[in-house]
Amino acid sequence: MATINLSFEEMWEKIIACDSAYDGLFYTAVKTTKIYCRPSCKARKPKQVNVTFYLTMPEVEAAGYRPCKRCQPERDRSPQMDLITNVMAFLVEHHKQKLVLPDIAKQTGVSPFYLERLFKQMTAETPRTYLEKIRVDKAAHLLAHSEKTNLEICYEVGFQSPSNFYRAFRRIKQCSPSEYRLMAHTNPKR
């Protein structure tokens, strides 16, 4: 299984946003309750100091945590879901690279047509739109936590052109990168 390289802050942002795009890529374990959840769990959010993140279900269960009864992270485990989770982890880890569907499919050992159809069936989006979302999420994190220019961030997160970056960012975040940075600096909880 592929692993992902997200910082604690990035994972924390995903659980606060209840972002289902990261389900299966990591699990949130709450030290005080000994329960673990998916990133998209709608249960009340714990204090940040009480949270530990694990990348796999066996790892979190070996640490002594039990699954949340609300989001039921242990269900929906099938070979198809494992394949999609591996593809999602691959996309998160390789978001900076120029990726096309045949290359992604080659990594998984299935045909591009089957991969796109299964990915859409399991996630309600295509691998390309998922990759765009990952890139925009990374860009939003950099906009809020760095002083890099929009153009530097555009290329750092894997977009091939500024116009695609601005278009995707506005579609996903409903504002421009500059507007997002301004809001992030005036409202640090965003």
UniProtKB/TrEMBL annotation:
<keyword id="KW-0238">DNA-binding</keyword>
<dbReference type="InterPro" id="IPR004026">
    <property type="entry name" value="Ada_DNA_repair_Zn-bd"/>
</dbReference>
<keyword id="KW-0010">Activator</keyword>
<dbReference type="GO" id="GO:0032259">
    <property type="term" value="P:methylation"/>
</dbReference>
<dbReference type="Pfam" id="PF02805">
    <property type="entry name" value="Ada_Zn_binding"/>
</dbReference>
<keyword id="KW-0804">Transcription</keyword>
<dbReference type="InterPro" id="IPR009057">
    <property type="entry name" value="Homeodomain-like_sf"/>
</dbReference>
<dbReference type="InterPro" id="IPR035451">
    <property type="entry name" value="Ada-like_dom_sf"/>
</dbReference>
<protein>
    <submittedName>
        <fullName>Methylphosphotriester-DNA--protein-cysteine methyltransferase family protein</fullName>
    </submittedName>
</protein>
<keyword id="KW-0805">Transcription regulation</keyword>
<feature type="domain" description="HTH araC/xylS-type">
    <location>
        <begin position="85"/>
        <end position="183"/>
    </location>
</feature>
<dbReference type="InterPro" id="IPR016220">
    <property type="entry name" value="Me-P-triester_DNA_alkyl-Trfase"/>
</dbReference>
<dbReference type="InterPro" id="IPR018060">
    <property type="entry name" value="HTH_AraC"/>
</dbReference>
<keyword id="KW-0489">Methyltransferase</keyword>
<dbReference type="Pfam" id="PF12833">
    <property type="entry name" value="HTH_18"/>
</dbReference>
<dbReference type="GO" id="GO:0008168">
    <property type="term" value="F:methyltransferase activity"/>
</dbReference>
<keyword id="KW-0808">Transferase</keyword>
